């Protein structure tokens, strides 16, 4: 039986999701925002069983930082870290934004 991990969404990632929800609700509809929220939560919860399925974000490779992984729910990128049996979700970012700048602000301070 495979080990089950605990997924923790940190405050910054919760804020990311809230901002995405508000943007979609305002620019599309509440129904679309709720559907997207459910899909993002489901994508994150799948990490409980297979956390290693992610890959190192290409923007972080040149920095030598290898502890962060990402998965996608297009166009959104979910960036996380595995520590023992806990998955920490650090970012949920629209992939159309300047990812390099966002990751530099958050991880290279």
Notes on the protein architecture:
There is one protein chain. With 109 residues, the protein is α+β, with helices and mostly antiparallel strands. It has a single domain, classed as RelE-like (YaeB-like fold). It is 39% helix and 25% strand. A four-stranded mixed β-sheet has the order 1-4-3-2. The N and C termini lie far apart (39 Å). 24% of the residues are buried.
Mean pLDDT: 92
> Helix and strand succession?
EHHEEEH
Number of H- or I-type helical stretches: 3
CATH class: Alpha Beta
CATH architecture: 2-Layer Sandwich
Radius of gyration: 14 Å
Kindly report how far apart the N and C termini lie. Answer: 39 Å
Largest sheet: 4 strands, mixed
Strand order of the largest sheet: 1-4-3-2
- Number of domain units: 1
The chain-level structural class is: alpha+beta
Instruction: Estimate what percentage of residues fall within beta strands.
Output: 15-25%
What's the shape?
Answer: globular
What would the CATH topology be?
A: YaeB-like fold
Low-confidence stretches: none
CATH superfamily: RelE-like
In short:
This protein has helices spanning 11-27, 30-45, 99-107; strands at 6-9, 68-73, 76-83, 86-94.
Please give the structural blueprint:
Blueprint lengths: L5 E4 L1 H17 L2 H16 L22 E6 L2 E8 L2 E9 L4 H9 L2
Parallel strand pairs: 1-4
Antiparallel strand pairs: 2-3, 3-4
Helix pairs in contact: 1-2
């Amino acid at each position: 039986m495979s080990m089950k991990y605990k997924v923790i969404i940190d405050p910054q990632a919760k804020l990311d999701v809230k901002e995405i929800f508000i943007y979609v609700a305002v620019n599309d509809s509440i129904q679309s925002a709720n559907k997207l929220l459910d899909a993002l939560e489901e994508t994150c919860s799948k990490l409980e069983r297979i956390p290693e399925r992610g890959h190192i974000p290409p923007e972080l490779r040149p920095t030598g930082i290898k502890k962060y992984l990402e998965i996608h729910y297009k166009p959104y990128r979910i960036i996380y870290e595995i520590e023992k049996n806990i998955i920490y979700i650090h970012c949920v970012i629209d992939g159309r934004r300047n990812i390099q700048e966002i990751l530099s602000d958050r991880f290279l301070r």
